Amino acid sequence: MKIKATEIRKGMILEIDGDLYYVHSFTHLTPGKGQALVQTKLKNLQSGRMIDKRFSSDDKVEKASLEQREMQYLYQDGDTYYFMNMENYEQISLPKDLLGDSVNFLKPDIEISVNYYNGEPVSVELPIVVELEVIETEPGLKNATVSNVNKPAKLETGVIIQVPQFINEGDIIKVNTQTGEYISRA
Q1: 124: helix, coil or strand?
Q2: For the chain, how big is the Rg over CA atoms in Å?
Q3: Is domain 2-63 in CATH 3.40.50.2000, yes or no?
Q4: How far apart are CA 78 and CA 80, in angstroms?
Q5: Three-class DSSP category at 162
């Protein structure tokens, strides 16, 4: 399906010259003169190589036609992650490099979407918000209500993010999986 370059968003899978590319990031540029541009950072899903590609706002790009299957995360064994199809209970394994930064937010029983292209898994989509437990952080300051001063906190998945001073060990917090940022207490 062809889309305008201005419709490109992070997480999309594009088909360019017969290869599949994951949109890692994009920026709309509007120079003082001339037409607007879309600057993208793309990851080749076959080779894993990152490229920078610029499109004019009039360009059309091919959005890959993907089949989505709902899966439940089960467990990890080394660099391999195991998932169960929610419809037929079939289990699949995916390598860490295919999952990318998504591994920072995977906890058992979380439901995700696995994108398939020609019968092969090519990427995953997490819920935008996940709830994770803080397992390690400095003690919170009493009466700390200002949220512009942050401290590092290690979450149950092992990822470290910045949280407000009033967050303590054992708190359950909401995290944006696209930015890796703290949203609120759960």
Answers
A1: strand
A2: 19
A3: no
A4: 6
A5: strand
